[in-house]
Design a protein that fits this description.
alpha+beta, Nucleotidyltransferase, domain 5, seven-stranded mixed β-sheet, 15 helices
Length: 428
């Protein structure tokens, strides 16, 4: 039996074909653009669907057996209005969009930040789905009325592949419209917003078989009409499961930004909370510019990542006093420069800053016995050793950086395929 895991990210869709031993038989990726103007950040949902289809077509030639099941890992919070055939009625409003500031304030005035957090697990931010849905209803009333469903990326793909408008608990709990304790759409928030629950997807646990792929789509893709579509989940959750998240372990995805996840944390310090199933609650937080800061410094210094690592090894702990504020999306800075400072000092200062930020977040979550690292940053041995030394926690680097597609395949296979193995350990 073969399985396909799809990871629909913000600007790139990745797909992998696995056999039942967990071996990757083929992989492909396709990018698509954001449509940005000021605070408005949108996407063409058709581009999502087309990217998924083209990825599957690219994998079919590598199939040595029937493809038994497909599951999706997707970006969360974004939504798109669709008609009864699943055709988008407008661009999707993405998770990066912050236009609904006024609507966020109205929710804060009506309920208070503490109430919203206790009910939905979400801090009062305009990036979440609920304030953007309220904005959409007020500013695009005719499209709202025409919409059969308001679907997030996971729901949209499920609908296009099976004709069923269904989502999973993790996606629903990212909306600020879901009661994470009673595991249902919140009636009070629905009433306040005026959003009809009939326009929202039904909610199923991740790993549930939704149904068979639509016959016409199966024919277009060149796969069996018996292929099952299995309920996936939000990308950070599946990436964490693919990396082997468990009690007492934090997963750290070091990419353009860094995402830090912990399940059933005893402390969350106000971090966003996401329900996953009846037994698991995720606490999540992020650091906005980690890999992006490394990429920027690589470009400015004209060095490869390997060359940066070599130079960082030559600088002592403390980077000869250099301090790197890595918040480059706003106003980062490099401090304590003098004529004796080297490129290696500046690079190590950046790595130490990343390690310190991650360490602080993990401690605020209540600490961890292990930190599992994946993503592009996991390829830097010196960065991972600095993280172990700074945090005082053993750092485990996973064999695969693509743990979101692996997490999706774990669901598609019903647990036949397991999480990534550890490639290397860094002792503190």
């Amino acid at each position: 039996m073969l399985y396909i895991g799809i990871d629909l990210g913000t600007t790139c869709c990745k797909a992998r074909l696995y056999d039942e031993t967990g071996k990757v038989l083929g992989e492909n990726s396709i990018s698509y653009p954001l449509i940005a103007s000021g605070k408005n950040v949108e996407q063409d949902a058709n581009a999502w669907f087309n990217a998924v289809k083209e990825n599957i077509k690219a994998l079919v030639p590598f199939a040595t057996d029937e493809i038994a099941a497909i599951s999706f890992s997707t970006q969360g919070i974004s939504f798109v209005p669709v008609d009864k055939d699943g055709a988008p009625l407008a661009n999707a409003i993405t998770w990066l969009d912050t236009r609904a500031e006024t609507e966020t304030e109205s929710l804060k005035d009506a309920f208070g930040s503490e109430y919203i957090y206790k009910k939905t697990g979400k801090p009062m931010l305009s990036v979440y789905t609920l304030p953007k849905l309220i904005w959409f209803m007020k500013n695009c009333p005719s499209v709202y009325e025409k919409a059969y469903k308001l679907l997030m990326p996971l729901d949209f793909l499920n609908f296009k592949f099976t004709g069923k408008a269904v989502t999973d608990i993790s996606m629903a709990s990212g909306t600020m419209l879901y009661d994470i304790h009673n595991r249902k759409w919140d009636e009070e928030l629905l009433k306040f917003s005026g959003i009809s629950s009939l326009k929202l997807p039904d909610i199923l646990p991740a790993g549930t078989e939704i149904g068979r792929i639509l016959p016409q789509l199966a024919k277009e893709l060149g796969i069996s009409a018996e292929t099952s579509i299995v309920m996936g989940s939000q990308d950070q959750k599946l990436a964490a499961f693919g990396a082997g998240i468990s009690e007492g372990l934090c997963t750290v995805s070091i990419g353009t930004a860094t995402a830090i996840s912990k399940i059933n944390a005893t402390k969350n310090a106000g971090f966003p909370l996401f329900a996953y199933n009846d037994n698991i609650m995720f606490a999540e937080t992020s650091i906005s510019t980690t890999g992006a800061a490394i990429e920027w410094l690589s470009r400015v210094l004209g060095l490869s990542y390997k060359e940066m690592d070599e130079l960082a090894r030559q600088s002592p702990k403390g980077s000869n006093g250099v301090v790197f504020d890595l918040n480059l999306s706003v106003s980062g800075s490099i401090q304590n420069l003098n004529l004796g400072i080297t490129k290696g000092d500046i690079i190590r200062a950046l790595y130490e800053s990343i390690a310190t930020e991650i360490t602080n977040k993990v401690r605020q979550m209540g600490g961890a016995n292990y930190i599992c690292v994946f993503g592009g940053g996991s390829n830097s041995d010196i960065l991972n050793q600095i993280l172990a030394d700074t945090s005082g926690i053993e750092v485990c680097v996973m064999e695969t950086a693509e743990t979101a597609t692996l997490g999706a395949v774990m669901l598609a296979s019903g647990g036949v395929i397991g999480c990534s193995k550890i490639r290397r350990r860094f002792k503190c």
